[in-house]
Amino acid sequence: MPVSWLIDRLRPLAALLVVAGVAGVLVEAYAQQPDPPRRQQTQPQKPATKPAQRPPASGTKAPPTAAAQPPKSEPLPSSQVGIGTLARQAFMVDPQTSSVLLYKEADTAMHPSSMAKMMTIYIVFEELTAGRIKLDTRFRVSERARAMGGSRMFVELGSDVTVEDLVKGMIVLSGNDACVVIAEGLSGTEDSFAERMTKRAHELGLNKTVFKNASGWPADGQYSTARDLAVLAWRTIEDFPKFYRYYSESNWTYNNIKQDNRNRLLRTTPGTDGLKTGHTEEGGYGQATSAIRDGRRLILVVNGMTSMAERAQETARLMEWGFREFSNTTIFRAGDVVAEAPVWLGERDKVSLVAPRLVQVTGPAGQAAQPRVVARFEGPLAAPIAKGTKLGTAAVTLADGRVVEYPLEAGADVARQGVLGRVATLLRYYVFGWLS
User: Which residue in 64, 80, 156, 216 has the fewest CB atoms around it within 10 Å?
Assistant: First the structure.
């Protein structure tokens, strides 16, 4: 038998063995091979849909009274951002877009007065949510609580009052006595509760705030800022939707004494659903308030007014201005595809990056906002990928130069390739990658 004939017959078998050997080496190498070098990738994006300006609010007419007008005819003191206001400190924000509409000495230390009660109430809501107390839990009224001056709930010495009644007493009646009952019930003493308030405030980012008591009663070393109180208001609304409803009660009767909520906007300004008024001789009249119209919420904190009437009038005017002069434009709706990211060793080459929630920007009413949007992620993304996994961010550059980042999630599941598929991908990567 000729040797050449035998060699011709064995050549295909030898080639097959070589390929098999290479494949085996590649599979073994893959088990130890890290992912290919990954780098941050950015993809400039256009909004998924043409920005649509929010339609005018329906069913939310401005009150037909002088409440929405400037309380004085002379020029109003100017603000660093937004219109002039009689308030010494003022801060208005659209929390959905983090847009500051009004800023006047908003980071200057001021007396929080009864607006400090929002922190006491926040802690109570935390305790209720965690199940450590219940609405029908009762706390005993001490002599210290009964003797409190200023606005009161009129609790009786030695009585046991439910947490729900104390919450209403603090919110609706601004009861200083109710605050002491809560503080002593939760922490033993009001001083230790005030320390807890300050610690929790700093954890929430209220770094320019210090509390010395549970009610906001004037005390040396107690201070906050309009911005900090606005953040606290927003956290209350966001964190405790089940309990926030108490802030919208316009009056309440306890111990046969009926009192109105001092937040007059609950009765005069459409959409108002909270939060808290306050007054001290040194700090003046202040108010933290929030209103929502057609899904758009504004939060306003003012302080330093000269009377209850001026506070109500000025707060209503500023709220109407905020809703009238600004509107929100939708950039992405929940589920909209913002970018496509490459996938490494997945059954699909790419995965959609989607916005998990509504993304809006605030701008002057009647002007469609067109911000610059850039998708940022570390790619390629290694399979497997589960739908809903956070994979990057969408950086939205606003007209004023601010950049707001929103999370991006995987829009679909991407399974990992099988062994043969991974071998083929590695061959392409190492062979053609080198040649490219």
Answer: 64
